[in-house]
Each structure stands twice: as C-alpha cells, then as structure tokens.
Amino acid sequence: MKKIQLSVAEPGSGPIDTDMIIIGAGPVGLFAVFEAGLLDMRCHLIDALDKPGGQCAELYPEKPIYDIPGIPVCTGQELTDNLLHQISPFEPVFHLNQQAEQLGKTDDDRWCVTTSEGTQLRSRNIVIAAGGGSFVPKKLPLANAVEFENTSLFYSVRRMSSFAGKRVVIAGGGDSALDWALNLQPIAQHVTLLHRRDQFRAAPDSVNKMRALVAENKMDLLIGQLSSLHGKSGIINTVGIKKAGQDESRLEADALLAFYGLTMKLGPIAEWGLNRDENLISVDTEKFETSQPGIFAIGDICHYPGKLKLILSGFHEAALMCQQAFHYAFPDRKLIFRYTTSSSALHEKLGV
Ligand code: FAD
Fold first, then answer.
1. How far is the CA of 143 from the centre of ligand 1 (A)?
2. Per-residue pLDDT reduced to its tens digit, 121-159
3. Residue 99 to residues 130, 281, 302: CA-CA distances in angstroms?
4. Contact 244, 224 (CB under 8 A)
5. 2 lies in a domain?
6. Same structural domain for residues 176 and 117?
7. Among 315, 349, 326, 300, which Cα is nearest to 125's?
8. CA neighbor of 322 nearest in space, from 131, 90, 147
9. pTM of the entire predicted model
10. Which domain holds residue 281?
C-alpha cells in the first residue's frame, strides 16, 4: 500500500478553528476522523507521540490482531496504515509531539484547547480518544537530571540539527535508541550507545547496522549503566558510567538522549473537571458525551457499564459520538443517515 503523507501542522500554530478537535491519534481517534468526515466535519488531531497509531503503533506494531471485524489478521502497524489510508480523503491535520494541556472557552462559547507547544485549537466539539493517557518518556532516575533537561538531556529528538557536531551519548536498547543512534551518527561529532546489556529490543536490522558501525569505529557501544551527570548551568560535560564489577568511569559528552521506555499518564486532562471513574472518563452510551456538553470520550479512556477495552468497541463509540457532534458543529442542518455502499453523496466525499 502507498505510504500516506500526513498533514502535520507546525507546533505553536493557531488559533485554528475546526469542527472537531480529537485528542489522541490512536486507532479510535483515527477512525473518528472517518465517521466525522462522512458528516462533513473536519478534524484536527493532537498526539503526544511523534506518529499516529497509539498503542498499536507504539506497543505492538508487529504483533497480529485477530479481532478487527472483516480483517482476519493484521499487525498493529498495518491497522494504523489502513486507518490512515481510509481517512485520507478527509485530510485530517495532525499536531504531533505535543500534549493537550489547557481547556478554555472562547467568547462565542466554543471550546479552546492549548497544547504543550502553544498550539491553539477552537471547536464546538472535543473528542478525548486518549487511551490510557499520553505516552510520556520515563525520566532518568538521577537526582540532578532535571537541571539538564531540555538543554543537554533530552527524552526525544525534536530537531536533528541541534545534535550536529556534538558528542552524543544515547542511553537505551529499544527502537528509539537504535534509530537515533543510526540517524545521528552521520551528523554528530561522535555517538556512543550505552545499554545495560549486550542484547537489544530493537529491530534486528537496526542492531546489525549499529554493530557494523561499531566494527568500523564509526560509533561506540558501551555496556553499562548511566550513574551520574556532571556539568554547569544546565550543560552536561561528562556522564558517569558504571560497568559490571568496575568503578564508575567518566565519558565526555555534550548531549545525552535517554530512551528508557514510555509510560502512559492521563496528565492534564485529569484537571479538566470532567466526571471520572478513577482514571477513566465517564460517558453515556448514547452519545459518548462527558459531563460537559460538546466534550466526548471514546476508546480506552472512556468508562460506562460493560465497557470493553477493545478497538472494535472504540470504533462503535466513534460512530455514535459523531451523530451528536454533528448537531453542535452544524446546529441548523438536518442529519441524514446514509450507507457508504449506496450513497452518491458519500461517494463524492470519499472520492470514489
Ligand atoms: P490508544 O491506542 O491508547 O491511543 C491514545 C493516544 O492518545 C496515544 O497515542 C497517546 O499518546 C495520546 N494521548 C493521550 N493523552 C493525550 C494528551 N493529553 N495529549 C496528546 N495526546 C494524548 N485490542 C484489540 O481490540 N485487539 C487486540 O488484539 C489487542 N491487542 C493488544 C495487545 C497489546 C500488547 C496491547 C498493549 C493492547 C492490545 N489491545 C488490543 C488494546 C488496544 O490496543 C486498545 O484498545 C486501543 O489501542 C485503544 O485505542 P485508543 O485509540 O482508545 O487509545
């Protein structure tokens, strides 16, 4: 299948007016774009990750899923790619690498969401499809790590060019650590990959490429634990490394990238005053609306009696949610129920 080109907005843009703001670009948020599109609602999606797909793309891209109706088997990444293909006629706009943080109201009574990057989106409909919460990086368990955060210690790469000509230490053994070691090696002054053991969770092809670069002396691989950080005014100059059975040694470095995995946190949405059932957002089962009119919750994040945390349940919730969201987006229009098989109006929207 042809790779879909995403429309990704510049961070900090806005205020942008749209028919629906979707928080979370997991499978359920993506399918909501399709259901919304059939009803003429244009969508903007916000995700803390650097790519769409939620748990499917982040936690199990290569694992097979067997319970998507009509698809006997597909991997997490294949499902994501198919959803992106399916929603492409509706030209959704993605705001990636940013967390939905603040909720407000405009003078004309619309909702306004501001992200961690300062992007502002305004709409009559907000759909929280936030799964188990935003994926956030696990932080380094070193007392002074916070002093260096975002100046020379990073948990993600926003701009590759900021590592050009630098001595970069990359800690971790998963796909992110290996991918960034390979991507930064050609532009950094030197890359050292640091992992606690000589076995990696990353794709075998990346591991082979990394080992080839190490064999050619184009980068270093160290097996040990990061034990201390040293520097001044937020700038690291050396990192301490402890190898099994040895005293701590020091390595000169200008930047440290730490990829110790991700955890999921509900984060700022917990402060939005919505009725909750522990960490989940309570909704009705007719419209999947929360305790605030115009704010909906679908997918793993929502709670109602009998809720099943399955992708197929989220798809159903998205379809019903859109029936109500349409009335907020277009108060003067009548909603007409149509089948995709037989409606020429829907065929036109889908470009088929
Ligand atoms: P998610 O996939 O969790 O996506 C939510 C997205 O929202 C994330 O990308 C997150 O970064 C983003 N987000 C959250 N809060 C914010 C915020 N404030 N700002 C910005 N972004 C935010 N289900 C099945 O039906 N069949 C299976 O076989 C199956 N197998 C599974 C196997 C594994 C290993 C796992 C972990 C899960 C499996 N599941 C399966 C469950 C399925 O993956 C979830 O039900 C599904 O991913 C939920 O989709 P979602 O879109 O609601 O949320």
1. 32
2. 999 999 999 998 888 889 999 999 999 999 999 998 878
3. 10, 17, 18
4. yes
5. no
6. no
7. 326
8. 90
9. 0.81
10. 7-136+263-350
